[in-house]
UniProtKB/TrEMBL annotation:
Identification of the protein by name: cGMP-dependent protein kinase N-terminal coiled-coil domain-containing protein
Coiled coil: 11-59
Pfam families tied to this protein: PKcGMP_CC
Organism name: Xenoophorus captivus
Keyword Signal tagged: no
Keywords from the UniProt entry: Coiled coil
UniProt entry tagged with the keyword Coiled coil: yes
InterPro entries associated with the record: PKcGMP_CC
Basic and acidic residues composition bias: residue spans: 62-71
Record region (Disordered): 60-80
Span of domain cGMP-dependent protein kinase N-terminal coiled-coil: 16-50
Highest taxon, organism lineage: Eukaryota
Length: 104
């Protein structure tokens, strides 16, 4: 077994080790707190951007749908009458054209 002086020296070394570990723990906890603050700030900023972008995206989507509907309406225009009375066409006669022998 060691002498009293050896034991006191070993105790001092262990106390110093504990102080260093405590200092490291304090430093790491401070770093962790700073990173938590950064995460919170970035989360708030992200929430802010999402609140702005979501309505803007919906508005752009609605405008795109409206433009597509308008395009569809333009494409649906027909030269044919939509409603006609068959009696209005009864007086129309179509001319007869004889086919040439080459077209047979």
């Amino acid at each position: 077994m060691g002498t009293l002086r050896d034991l006191q020296y070993a105790l001092q070394e262990k106390i110093e080790e504990l102080r260093q570990r405590d200092a490291l723990i304090d430093e790491l906890e401070l770093e962790l707190d700073q990173k938590d603050e950064l995460i919170q700030r970035l989360q708030n900023e992200l929430d802010k951007y999402r609140s702005i972008i979501k309505p803007a995206t919906q508005q752009v989507h609605k405008q795109t749908e409206l433009q597509e509907q308008q395009r569809t309406k333009r494409q649906a225009i027909s030269a044919e009458p939509t409603a006609f009375d068959i009696q209005d066409l009864s007086h129309v006669t179509l001319p007869f054209y004889a086919k040439s022998p080459q077209s047979h």
